[in-house]
Amino acid sequence: MARLGFNLMAVEELYGGRFAGILEAATLADRMGVDLLVLPDHVTISEQAHRDRVTLGFPYPIPTNWFEPLTALAAVAAVTERARLGTNVLIAPIRPAVLLAKQLATLDVICGGRLDVGLGAGWQEEEYRVTERPFERRFGYLEEQVAVCRALWAGGPAAHAGHRVDFTDLHSMPVPVQGADLRLSFGFNPTPRAIERIVRHGVGWWAAPMPIEDVRAAIAGIRAECGRVGRDPAEVTVTAATTLVPHGKSAGEVGAMPVVQEAQALWDAGADCVIVHPLAFVRAPQELPGFLQPLLDARDAVRSDARDAVRPHASRTTLS
């Protein structure tokens, strides 16, 4: 079923810089029927890393607020009722595995089992250094973090023996409302190695903004890998994102595809959920409903088309 996500990053800029603006925007999106509300993650950004990333299209000026997402989403949970909450994506290896399991379980309890977690390994070596975590082998450690979380979320006594973490008879309460099946995705570039990791762990794929054909090719690769190892492709959900363009620029100025058209193309390519970001298109809070409604209408049209495609088959089954 097609879903629509809403990236809350820097939305407070529409509300005079007040954090409460994020809560107001989240409440509005929840009431309108948005399916997923997300925040991204950086603990620090160095001047040099920012300069390097801007040349690759990084859309945020260096003074932009990066609220710690798990903390901020706890506040969002208190003002929303139905939308799922997610990290887009959390730089997991800069957090100790057992602490990460506790933080995610706590947030899932706070939001009543509405948590979706996108996990990534990040790209700033300096961010690892200042958080006192090793940059090397971070992808392997992320895999181990998933195993640690699953073990602790199943309830105690839990045990794990890994490269960096080992324990026996541990209890970590509370466990998530979703239990050990709390939704996890990897926010990796879709290399063959990354696709193998995604499928092996049975997690979803959380894609960065990229050309539609790259998303389509990656989804085909994921499905092929699922077939190779005998895993149901439905177990590997795909969350994609529309293009992020620099603040203060319109879509036309940078040649970006109109956001509704891009979202439709991503759903057509096989994405289960498409995340949109308003800051390239919206200049005031009053414009948010007008930005979201056409996207919600497009989502609903995709859902309707999917239902129509199923009905004839269901009818033939009934008559046979």
State the domain count: 1
Shape: globular
Distance between the ends? 27 Å
Fraction of residues in β-strands: 5-15%
For the record, the CATH class is: Alpha Beta
Number of strands: 10
Fold-level CATH name? TIM Barrel
Q: Round the Cα radius of gyration to an integer and report it.
A: 20 Å
CATH architecture call: Alpha-Beta Barrel
Mean pLDDT: 93
Q: Strands of the largest sheet, in order across it?
A: 1-2-3-4-7-8-9-10
Structural class: alpha/beta
Number of helices: 11
What characterizes the major β-sheet? 8 strands, parallel, barrel
Please estimate the helix content. Answer: 40-55%
The helix-strand sequence is EHEHHEHEHHEEEHEHEHHEH
| CATH-assigned homologous superfamily | Luciferase-like domain
Poorly predicted runs:
250-255, 314-320
Main attributes?
alpha/beta; 320 residues; eight-stranded parallel beta barrel; TIM Barrel; single chain; disordered C terminus; two-stranded antiparallel ribbon
Can you walk me through this structure?
The chain is an alpha/beta fold. The chain has one domain (3-319): TIM Barrel. It is built from eleven helices and ten strands. It has an eight-stranded parallel barrel, surrounded by seven helices. A two-stranded antiparallel sheet has the order 5-6. The protein is globular. 39% of the residues are buried.
Task: Show the helix and strand layout.
Layout: E1 3-7, H1 20-32, E2 36-39, H2 47-54, H3 69-79, E3 84-91, H4 97-110, E4 115-120, H5 125-130, H6 138-153, E5 158-161, E6 166-170, E7 183-186, H7 192-201, E8 204-206, H8 212-229, E9 238-241, H9 251-254, H10 259-269, E10 273-276, H11 288-319
Parallel strand pairs: 1-2, 1-10, 2-3, 3-4, 4-7, 7-8, 8-9, 9-10
Antiparallel strand pairs: 5-6
Helix pairs in contact: 1-11, 3-4, 4-6, 7-8, 8-10, 10-11
